[in-house]
Each structure stands twice: as structure tokens, then as C-alpha cells.
Specification:
It holds the Pfam family EGF. The protein is α+β, with helices and mostly antiparallel strands. The chain has 4 helices and 15 strands.
């Protein structure tokens, strides 16, 4: 009798390294019957950078157990094909039912993906690529991929007309989730936001205007006059230029 392949993904929060697999074989016999099992342990280290560069995909009519077995491989291969990255550079760290949906209705899958050199896709780039290729991703994964549900940025918290970007932050580790062939330990992040501020503004919500005249940028005695998002140099007689 051959036991199911058991893959253990333990998610830790430390410095990022590539997932490292450990392969073990087990054999047991009572003198009449014998069984063997193969266990692959994969440990993935989750960092704040990974969380801040991640997205959450919503899958219709999906449970945690069904996602892990047998559809996890399909999802990883589909995402890697859409993003044109190797499968091993797609890092899933959370699978969690949508608490606002009916039981067994929507599954939220959070992940990040690495570019060559270990730099992660920005979350907005991931979201754009997956949104534009949603029909293809649905076909490749054999799952119904729903549009993104960005509740955090709906109230438009960023001031001065800047873009709001949803980001995840570490909250807590979660219990193991099991399926017939996989044991998976996710983390439960919390949703936050990041504002992309224009030149001349700073703060969590781009609410603070920077005095760009503070560094005396004007040359040859020019007078620096502040304006929204920048400054203007008022030149002395016989001088011109920015």
C-alpha cells in the first residue's frame, strides 16, 4: 500500500530565502503486509516585503481542502504562466474562506511572486497582470477566478488625488489545514493600505505638504516661491532658467 504524498508547508516569518524541500521515506511492516510513505517538507519564510508585495485572489465555489488537493498545482502553474515566472517563484502564504460569503462560497488565496534577482512584483503590477489575464487564469487553473474586491481603498483615504494600494501585514499564524495529501500552515494577515504620494507630499495618507524651498534650491540669488507639489524660482535681473 502506498500512502498519499504528504507535503508540509510551514510558514515562518523571518528573512526571506527560497523554499527548501526535505524528502523523507518511511517503511513499516507487520511481517505480512508492508507500507511505504514519502514525505516532502517545504518551509517558506515570509517577510514584510513579501506581504507588502502580495495580492489576494478570490476563487468561486472553492474550499480549503479542495484547493490543496488536487488543485494547488494547477493554481501555481496557472499563475506562473500568466506572470512568466517559474512555479517555485510563486509563494502562497494564506488560504482563507471569505467571511462575508456563504460557507464554501469564496476562498481567498494570498500570494506574492518573485522577479529574477529576488525582487518581488509590486502588488499593483500583480493585480494588473492577473486582472488582464483573468479568463486565461481561470482556464489554466480550472477554477473560477473572481474580480478583485478592494474594500480597503473604496473610501479613498489618500489625499491630493494619489493612488491607494492595498497591502497585507502580518497578524498571526493560523492552525494547520489538512487535505488527503497536504498539510498546510498559513498565516492570517490583515489588510492595510499604502498611498503613493506625489512630489512635494508625504505622510501615511499624503496629507503633509513638504516645503521644497527648505533646501534653497534656487541659484544666483533667486527667490524660491512654494506652489502645490513643488516650487518656482523667481530669478534676479539678468538671470533666467528654472
Amino acid at each position: 500500500m502506498l500512502l498519499h504524498l504528504l507535503t508540509l508547508l510551514s510558514i515562518l516569518r523571518r528573512t526571506f530565502i527560497q523554499p527548501f524541500p526535505r524528502l523523507s521515506f518511511f517503511n513499516s511492516s507487520d511481517g505480512v503486509y508492508s507500507i511505504s510513505a514519502q514525505c516532502v517538507l517545504r518551509v517558506l519564510i515570509i517577510t514584510e516585503d513579501m506581504l507588502g508585495s502580495s495580492v489576494t485572489v478570490r476563487l468561486q465555489n472553492m474550499s480549503q481542502e479542495h484547493f490543496l488537493s488536487p488543485l494547488l498545482g494547477n493554481f501555481l502553474e496557472g499563475v506562473s504562466a500568466v506572470l512568466s515566472v517559474p512555479v517555485e517563484d510563486v509563494f502562497i502564504f494564506n488560504i482563507q474562506p471569505d467571511l462575508d460569503a456563504a460557507p464554501g462560497g469564496i476562498l481567498n488565496v494570498s500570494f506574492s511572486a518573485a522577479l529574477p534577482g529576488g525582487v518581488f512584483f509590486p502588488s499593483e503590477t500583480l493585480e494588473e497582470q492577473l486582472y488582464l489575464n483573468r479568463p486565461r487564469l481561470t482556464s489554466l487553473t480550472q477554477m473560477e477566478v473572481l474580480p478583485f474586491d478592494d474594500n480597503v481603498c473604496l473610501r479613498e483615504p489618500c489625499q491630493n488625488y494619489m493612488k491607494c494600494i492595498s497591502v497585507l501585514r502580518f497578524n498571526s499564524s493560523a492552525p494547520f489545514i489538512s487535505s488527503p495529501s497536504i498539510l498546510f500552515r498559513p498565516i492570517h494577515p490583515i489588510a492595510g493600505l499604502r498611498c503613493r504620494c506625489p512630489v512635494g507630499f508625504t505622510g501615511d495618507y499624503c496629507e503633509t505638504e513638504i516645503n521644497l524651498c527648505y533646501s534653497n534650491p534656487c541659484l544666483n540669488g533667486g527667490v524660491c516661491a512654494r506652489r502645490e507639489g513643488g516650487y518656482t524660482c523667481i530669478c534676479r535681473e539678468d538671470y533666467t532658467g528654472e
